[in-house]
Design goal:
alpha/beta; Rossmann fold; Dihydrodipicolinate Reductase, domain 2; 2 domains
Length: 358
């Protein structure tokens, strides 16, 4: 019989709830526990929190209680996250998979990489940061398509998103700066951390190409709202940021440019709610562009018949499900240590337990 890995879901926001549903459905996983932060969720069945059938697993706010469960793995999804907490879980002998940083911290955050690596060694376990973007679009998928190329001049990953129905206030207002004034955005204490977070996948792509980044640059452009805009996290007021355009660029020793671009906005493509218009390549979704001796545009999108709410929900679910599908590979990877996409086999969905002899 295939081993089932006992998994704890840590935090049950929009991504955490998707991951929780994924754990319950995955044929190789067993839900061992749920860590929550509110009194409203504590003591409730995990299924009730995630909007599925009862699981028989009760959510708790108590960290010691979670560690005492001795799960194989924790899907760690809080915002904000805690490096100290991550290290504590690793040292307790629990594999940790997270959509939070750190995807490839060895260049941008060597002290963090050292702390996590040492905690993995002490606990005899592995750490893996995964997700959608970063965690897939930003590095895994571009690297896959570089296998079709020989000379690579530029790799660009662009994320476009109408965020009016995005329901995470922390992400919308603090990470995306939507609803802030430009002055507040420029003073955002998370600005340096965000830059490092986008440089991490740039560093990973460079490493995957057998190179290293020798020059970094960042460009932040904003467009303000010309009226109050209703969103899932409240009103974004006139004259505050309603379109945030980030570009983080790394140039390798050989001259290849690696670009991470985000266009987050609170409107449709007509942009009638904005003080000026920007040439946006697509309504919502992702584009991976490779330029060199082979030129590729790879668009990743959801079907047009989905509503905007459904598109956002499925987009967030991709992060949660990617974490879930990584569990067996991370638990089985030779270790202990930090595991990136450069260290793991392909992460795929799992619909059964059949193995073909080969």
């Amino acid at each position: 019989m295939t081993k089932k890995y006992r998994v704890v879901q840590w935090a049950t926001g929009v991504v955490g709830s998707a991951a929780l549903r994924g754990i319950v459905r995955h044929p190789k996983l067993e839900l061992a526990g749920v860590k929550v932060y509110s009194d409203d969720k504590a003591g409730r069945d995990a299924g009730e929190i995630a909007g599925i059938d009862a699981t028989g697993v009760t959510a708790t706010k108590d960290v010691d209680e979670i560690i005492a469960l001795a799960p194989d793995c924790i899907l760690y999804c809080p915002l904000p996250w805690s490096l100290e907490e991550m290290c504590r879980l690793l040292e307790a002998g629990i594999h940790v998979i997270t959509p939070c940083p750190y995807w490839f911290p060895f260049v941008q955050n060597p002290d963090v990489a050292k702390a996590l690596s040492e905690s993995c060694q002490r606990g005899g376990v592995n750490f893996h940061a995964s997700g959608c973007n970063p965690g897939g679009i930003a590095e895994r998928f571009p690297l896959t398509f570089t296998g079709w190329c020989n000379r690579i001049d530029r790799i660009t990953m662009t994320e476009c998103g109408d965020c009016r129905t995005y329901s995470s206030e922390g992400v919308m207002r603090e990470l995306m700066n939507l609803g802030k004034t430009p002055e507040e955005a420029d003073r955002n204490v998370l600005k340096e951390m965000l830059a490092k977070s986008w440089y991490e996948p740039i560093d990973m792509i460079a490493a995957g190409l057998g190179s290293e980044v020798v020059e970094y640059s960042a460009h932040h452009d904003y467009i303000l709202a010309n009226q109050d805009i209703e969103t899932a996290v409240g009103i974004v007021k006139k004259d505050t940021i309603a379109l945030n355009h980030y570009r983080h660029i790394g140039k390798t020793r050989e001259g290849t440019e690696i670009v991470q671009e985000q266009i987050w906005y609170l409107d449709d493509l007509e942009q009638t709610r904005l003080q000026k218009k920007m040439d946006i390549p697509r309504a919502s979704g992702w584009r991976i562009k490779l330029e060199g001796d082979v030129n590729l545009n790879v668009d990743v999108d959801f079907p047009p018949e989905l509503t905007q709410d459904e598109r956002v929900a499925q987009g967030l679910s991709t992060t949660g499900f990617h974490l879930v599908n990584a569990v067996p590979l991370v638990c089985e990877a030779e270790g202990p240590g930090m595991k990136t996409y450069l260290d793991l086999p392909m992460i795929t969905g799992c619909m059964g337990e059949h193995v073909v002899a080969r």
